[in-house]
Amino acid sequence: MPTTVRSFGKINLGLCIGARRKDGYHELRTIYQTVGLHDRVRVQVERGRGIRIRCEVAGVPQDDSNTCYQAAERLLAALGIKRRVTIEIEKRLPVQGGLGGASSNAVATMQALQHELKRELPLPERMRIAAEIGSDLPLFLIGGTVLGVSRGEEVYPLDDGPSFQCVIATPRIGISTPKAFADWDRTQRQRKLTARDASDRINWFSSAALLWLNGYLPRRLGLTGRSSSGVPVDFGGGRAENPLLELVRTGIANDFERVVFPQHPELRELKRTLQREGANYASLSGSGSAVYGLFGSRPAAVRAARKLAAEGTLAEATRTVTRREYWKHL
Ligand code: C5P
């Protein structure tokens, strides 16, 4: 019996690009959030050798450049096992869409393959393999709300708050992430911004994320107290407001919007539509082209998704997926 797993997408709640490093990657800070939109990955193991990829969607490679192929190959090697592996990908997440589809598929492959083989590679080893294949893979070994640092591959689980309604619009535009980074570098040079400026921005983003953790966590735990200056601090006690909303109120944004929106004004327009339709926060995800909005209620999210669909944009009302749900429904 083959093993089928859900391969959830992610959105980025803010993404700050720092300086280009000596290894060619950019220093990065972001908060990843897994969402309900997902592909399905089916893994079958038989006697023999070789890895086969099956996917009917154009643009998904079927050779060893496929992230699922690489994940399966490395997992088998690390476990010292030789088998014939067939990986079928049922795609709903857009290709080059900023929702981490290829990365998520690769991690889903590892999880399904482990299940098929009835063998498990320790998490740190799976993390290492994931990070070698791509910067956006390790987050999918954690799920829920995840802080990403370094080139995005160094991941830290954040508090697993309640789920949030969201609308994800997936225009049929593929955006190359390396090109988006190169465009970012060009704009930084044109504005004569230095590595020092880049590091200041990175630090600001980290502070905003920390401020959120400091404010939200005590509230969630129902704590009130006094600041070091003796001023009473009321964290609200009792029920906390939605943590994601508090997080986006810190003013975090996605730097890729500054290079992607000028080249694709229709994506900026999509963000505006989501805001007009009542999104509490709207943003490009990763380097795009997906644009999402966070909503206060399911009916509001469904209304906004319908409005976008009526305008001819693929859009779906879904929810953010907490870590607990992620592992329960994988
Ligand atoms: O790690 P991944 O293979 O997903 O990265 C794809 C490309 O995106 C890299 O080759 C690099 O050009 C760019 N990148 C970057 N800085 C990052 C992540 C990716 O410049 N932090």
Summarize the structure in short.
This protein is an alpha+beta fold and about 325 residues long. It has helices at about 65-80, 100-115, 125-135, 175-190, 195-220, 245-250, 255-265, 265-275, 300-310, 325-330, and strands at about 5-20, 25-45, 50-55, 85-90, 145-150, 155, 165-170, 225, 230-235, 280-285, 290-295, 315-320.
Q: Mind summarizing the main beta sheet?
A: 6 strands, mixed
Query: Which runs of at least 5 residues are low in confidence (pLDDT < 50)?
Result: 231-240
Look at the structure and give the mean pLDDT: 90
As a whole number of angstroms, the C-alpha radius of gyration is 20 Å
- As a percent range, the share of helical residues equals 25-40%
Q: What is the approximate shape?
A: globular
Counting H and I runs of at least 4 residues, what is the number of helices? Answer: 10
How many strands in all?
Answer: 12
Distance between the termini: 17 Å
* Computed structural class: alpha+beta
How much of the polypeptide forms β-strand, as a percent range? Answer: 15-25%
